[in-house]
Every structure is written in C-alpha cells, then in structure tokens.
Amino acid sequence: MVFAGAMLLLPFTHSGWASEVNDTQGPVIAIKSPRSGQKIITPAVIVSGTASDASTGKNGIASVTVNGEKADGDTATGTDTASWKKTVFLDASGTNTIVVVARDGAGNETTKALTINYATTPVLTVKTPTNNSSVTTAYITVKGTATDVRTGNSGIASVTVNGTRAANDTTTDAVKTASWSKSVDLFLGPNTITVIAADGLGYTTTQSIVVTRLPDLKGPVLTVRTPTNGQKITAYSLTVSGTASDATTGANGIASVTVNGVRASGDTAEGKATAKWSITLDTPPKTITVVATDTQGQSTRKSITVKPAHLGICDADPMVLEGSPGAKQSRGCIVNYTQTITDPAYIQRFGTDTVQRRYLVYAPSNLPETPVPVLFMFPGKGTNAETAAFYMSQTRFETLADRDGFVVVYGNGLPFVADGETRDGWMENGGDFQGCFLEHSGQGIDVQYVRDILDQLETELNIDRARVYATGISAGGGLCFQLALEAPDLVAAVAPVAGLPFQPAGIWLFYCNVHQDLGKVPIAMLAATADPFIAYQPGSSVRYPSAQYPGMEQTRDAWLSTMGISDAPTVEDFPDAVKTDSYQPQSGMTDSYVELYKYPPGLSGSELWYYKAVGAGHWWPNPTQMYYTLWPTYGKTNQDIDFADQAWAFFQRHSKQ
C-alpha cells in the first residue's frame, strides 16, 4: 500500500512499524536501597530499585538480575517500568559488592554495582573527649559505649584504651551496652588514644582520637576559710585553714600549700581532688599569705590581714589584779623572752648566761604611721609589770597613749634576789632591778633589757628612738637613774619617783659605769618626805634601818652639779585638793602637798625638775588612794597630782638630738 504525498513509507512488520534506527542502548537502572557504602548489621539485605527502557528504545525490560540471580518484578513491556527487588545474603568478610544487571527487549544490558559493609564487629562510640580536642590536664578520662546488639549479639568482652582495660567494659547480657571509662595520662603535645572493643566472638572494632595537652598556665583554686579578712584576733595562736583544688584549672593535683612560707598539713591532693589544709601559727602576724602550687608548678597566692588584739611579739595576757570595782586593768599584753647575759660578773653571780624576762606592752590601735615615742615604767622590788600598770599608775599612761599616740612598756625586774633575801611575800612574777648594786662591766643587765625591748618593739612598730623615756618607782626609779648614768644614748629623759638615789659620783654610784655623755639626760624626780623605804634625809629609813641613804635633796644636788646647772629654780605649788592624803603615824601630818622646783638647763643643755611631795609616802602620786591596809607599810600617796600626767608633760619637752 502506498500513500500519496511526500510521506516516507516504512516497511510494516508483523510486530508493528519498523524502527528508523536499530536499538543499541541499555535500559536505565535505579537502585533505591541500600545506598552504596551503607553499613548493614543484618546478614541479609533486600536490594530494590527500578529499570526502564522508556527513554532508550521502548523495548521493555526483559530481566533484572542481582548478583546473577533473577530479581522479583524484573520485567516490563514497552515504556513501562519494572520495580524489582532481591534478597541478598552477605558474606562475613565486611565489604560486599552487589551487581545489578538489567536487559531490555532488544538484548541491551545496563550494569550497576554498589558496595555495602556487613558489620559483624561491635559498635564502638567514644563520647569524650572529642577528636582533635585540647586540654591542659596531665590526664583525661576517656568515656564511651560499646555494644554487640544486632552485630552478632555475643556481648562485649572487653574495651581497652591504649592497651589497658577500661572500667565497666563488659556486658554479661548480649543485648546490653557497656558504658566504659578509662583515665589516660597525657604528655605535652599531641596524644593518640586508641580504643578497641571486642565482642564475645573475638571480633573487634578500633577507634583512635588525638588529644593535645597544652601547658597548664593557671594556678589552682585557693580558698582561705579561717580566719576571715579583717578578723580581730584575740588568741595568741591562730589556726589558718582552707582548701586548694586544681579540678577546674588543670586537674594536675596540689603539690603544696604554704602559709607565710611554712608548709601546711594536708596540703597535697591528686588530680581533681581537693586538699583540705591547715596550720597553727603561734604568733599570728598582721598579714597572712597563703600560696597553693599545683604539680605543674603553677601557683595561686592569697593574702589576708587580721587585726590582732595584741602585738605579734606577745604570748600571754597580763595578770588580772584585785582592785576596787571599775578599776581599769591594763589593755596590753605580756612578752616573755630569754635574755642573753654576756657580762662575766653577772654570769658568775647568777650561775647562768641566760635568764627569762618579761614585760607588759600597750600599743594603741590608733597609732600614727609616723615614728612614735616609747615610754617605760618600771615597778619596785618584789612586784611585777602589772603592778606598775594597775596599782601604781592606774593605767593612766595608757589613756594618755590613746590620746597622744605613744607606746607604753611596763618593765619587770629580774627573777633573782640579792644575797640573803628570799622571795617570800613577792607577787607572782615579781622581780628586782639590780641597778648599780651589782658589780658589772659596761652597761648593767637591766640596761641591756631595755635595749632588747626596743629592738623587739621595732620589729612591729614604727618607734622613734629619739623619744624613748623612762619612769618608775623605788627600784624602778633607781633604774631610771642608772639609764641616765650608763645609757644617755638610749633615753631622751627620765622621771624617777621615790627612786633608789644613784648618783653620778661618790658611794651612791656603786658599780655603775658612767657614759661619756653623762649629764645630758633631762630629769624630773619626785621625792617624798615621809617615805618609809627610801629616806628623804641622809641616813636610814623606817623599813631599812641599817641602810645609809644619801638624802634626796643631796641626790638632786649631785645631779645638778653634773648637769652644770647653777641657776636658782622657779617654784610652783600645786593646789592642795585632798586634805587627808598623809599617814599621820609616820609623817606627823594628815595632809600632803607637792612643790615643784624647775631648774633651768645648765651647761649640758638639760633641765631638772624636782617634785617635793611633803608628807607623802612610798607610792605613785595619783588621785586614787591606796588600800588602807597598806598605809602602815607604805604610808599614803599624795592625791593632789597624777604623776603620770606630770611625767608625760615633761617628756614631751625633750627628744634626743
């Protein structure tokens, strides 16, 4: 049959119109599942997809094979699509190659292949640390999980980290997961950490990560728990305590904790552990510095300040003495120390080259930053420092120190007695100042005692060596005279009260050794006309009938001569405020009063004030009368003046040049 026109005529076959060109292209294959490279945990996998010849020849799909075996649904006619599938059993070798071949009706083939991994080994996961992470710690804890569920179900036999078994690395139940952990020491720089999980059948999975250890540049976390910053300290020892940890700053552990340079107890810890340290300081300083150091040498420093209620050189509270209600005890503190004796005469006398000494010191809390004066007050024989503070001066010097800013030191005599005397009747810690009575070379033992005290005070206080003053009563007054004789380089002025009348020359110089600057120390001396211990007139006294005193006015004159003073004094009378302050059985009068003779500076440039307490006994003049049971022994004290005020006013006029 022929059609008219320009139409091209094609031969007609039994199957339809003949193709213009022969079909030489294979069909199009699409593999939908599984994807190439997928990890499969089951021994069999269904491979599925499509095949179509619609765009390559329209000859349909004649067959689809998977690994050479015919797939289900593998045919289609013309332009239809074959949706095929095939179950493939996997080898245990791990990587499996699956080949899919589709053939169209014209005999053309298309081949596609994919690989899948049959996971017969356990599943291993490293949770921490992450790969390529950095730390500053000397060790790290590696954590993760391992399971054989659906990969053999034989359980986890072990997990090793760098060849060492991890904790919790097994599962007795085949379907359970092992949550393992292991601490690994690190070197500075990159560290490779290899984890291997093995199942019950011996199959293993390996995973490696790299962790870089950087230098630890941070100090540990340091906490000072006691005392708190600014805390007031009343005890004479102090426990400092706290914690130190490197857990958050390197986890390298604590190597040491020092407090003011001394190792504390409990001051070490490993890794992230906390060191709970403590130390007891016998003499708490004002500043406490704690240094915690980790095992990598990094340190953390903390300093706190405390407010001791006493000086650091102190080691005890003063004795509390009995007195009238409301009487003020000393607010100072006691210092005990060992004095070294170097003078051969003293060593022979005492049979030792050391002796225990003590003193009571009061330093106001409001002292200025500039150098401050030091005022010594020395008690009489057989009494102690607390006596000078409480019974004698009634702590008036401490009140003045608060007002004017100076340090008060109450001395304490040597705990020895002179030949033939005992301590019977002495107060606890009572002592005696040796004065000029005992033979010695150079300066006396009590002069060295004063120098020792100044050296000790200077370790904590800003003292003014040009303004060191001394006052005292009886033997303590004698020490004032001795300081003027042997140590004019040490004291700026002295004010003895009823003191042993040591003189610059003659018998009452005894064994004192005069200094080359003798006569340059200003003196304010008080003498009592009814003193039963130290006679006002030359000769013996009521209490010492065998003694031969030189007389107080004669002692005054001896000093005036040495000081080059020849001018007449000005005389002042203090108001006679109290009319019953003389002990009549001894003085022959009921009232005492005080006259002051002010001698002008002499050739040495120093002045002398002479207080004559008419009718007064052997006691420190102050407004408070002594207890009446003491009158037969000491007489009465003059109550018209407070000699503490007088002495301090005199001292304020003088300083060493």
Kindly describe this structure.
With 657 residues, the chain is mainly β. Helices cover 12% and strands 35% of the residues. The chain is built from nine helices and 37 strands. The longest helix has 13 residues, at 445-457. The protein starts with 11 loop residues before the first strand and ends in a 6-residue tail after the last helix. The model is unreliable at 1-20 (pLDDT under 50).
Give a brief description:
The chain has nine helices and 37 strands.
Mean pLDDT: 91
Strand order of the largest sheet: 28-29-31-30-32-33-34-37-36-35
Oligomer: single chain
Compute the gyration radius: what is it?
Answer: 53 Å
The biggest sheet, with number of strands, parallel, antiparallel or mixed sense and barrel status, is: 10 strands, mixed
Strand count: 37
Q: Strand percentage, roughly?
A: 35-45%
Structural class: mainly beta
Number of helices: 9
**What helical percentage do the residues reach?**
10-25%
Name the poorly predicted regions.
Answer: 1-20
Termini separation comes to 153 Å
Shape: rod-shaped
What is the fold's blueprint, element by element?
Layout (H helix, E strand, L loop, with lengths): L11 E2 L2 E2 L10 E6 L5 E2 L3 E9 L8 E6 L2 E2 L10 E9 L5 E10 L4 E10 L4 E6 L4 E3 L3 E9 L8 E6 L2 E2 L11 E9 L3 E11 L4 E10 L7 E6 L5 E2 L4 E8 L8 E6 L2 E2 L10 E8 L5 E8 L4 E7 L1 E2 L24 E8 L3 H7 L3 E9 L9 E7 L6 H8 L3 H9 L2 E4 L34 H13 L5 E11 L1 H12 L6 E5 L25 E6 L23 H11 L7 E4 L10 H4 L5 E7 L8 E7 L16 H4 L8 H9 L6
Parallel strand pairs: 4-10, 12-18, 20-27, 30-31, 30-32, 32-33, 33-34, 34-37
Antiparallel strand pairs: 1-2, 3-5, 5-8, 6-7, 6-9, 9-10, 11-13, 13-16, 14-15, 14-17, 17-18, 19-21, 21-24, 22-23, 22-25, 25-26, 28-29, 29-31, 35-36, 36-37
